[in-house]
Structure formats: structure tokens, C-alpha cells
Description:
This is Biopolymer transporter Tol. This protein is mainly alpha-helical.
Amino acid sequence: xxxxxxxxxxxxxxxxxxxxxxxxxxxxxxxxxxxxxxxxxxxxxxxxxxxxxxxxxxxxxxxxxxxxxxxxxxxxxxxxxxxxxxxxxxxxxxxxxxx
Length: 99
């Protein structure tokens, strides 16, 4: 799969003309891959909950999606406004909470 287009500053990816905040490039490869895996699992769980019309399971799965996106730096305080320690703490807390 080809890498998506990025803005010149590297802070956003562009998909179908729309900007999305990029994953924090300071996250080491292994934890970033684990966070993406957990994000995809949570997204699948949202779909299952929607098909089963289980509102509680949907809320829980959507909360895990949000937690994973925050840990990856795609939501919450922008990663370029955080110190290296804050960035590291963010993804480590996310991994701990989601694992």
C-alpha cells in the first residue's frame, strides 16, 4: 500500500483532498504497530456492535477507538505541541490502557 500524501510540514496526511492529523512519528515502530492493531480491533468491534444494535458495546468500542487515536497522536493535544516526554507518556499510557 502506498503512503498517503503528507502536507509539507508532515503534520497531516491528505486522503481524497481531506486533511487528517498524521500519527506521531516519534512513536517507535513496534508500539505504533501495536496501537494500530488495537485501533483496528476497536473499529471492528464498533461494526459488530452496530450490527447487533448493542449500544453499550458500541460506546465501549468507540471509547477504545478514541483512546487509540489519542495514543497515536491523531487526536487530543497535537503531538507537535508536546514535549518528547509528554509524547512518550501519551503513547505508553494508551498502550497500557488498551492492552
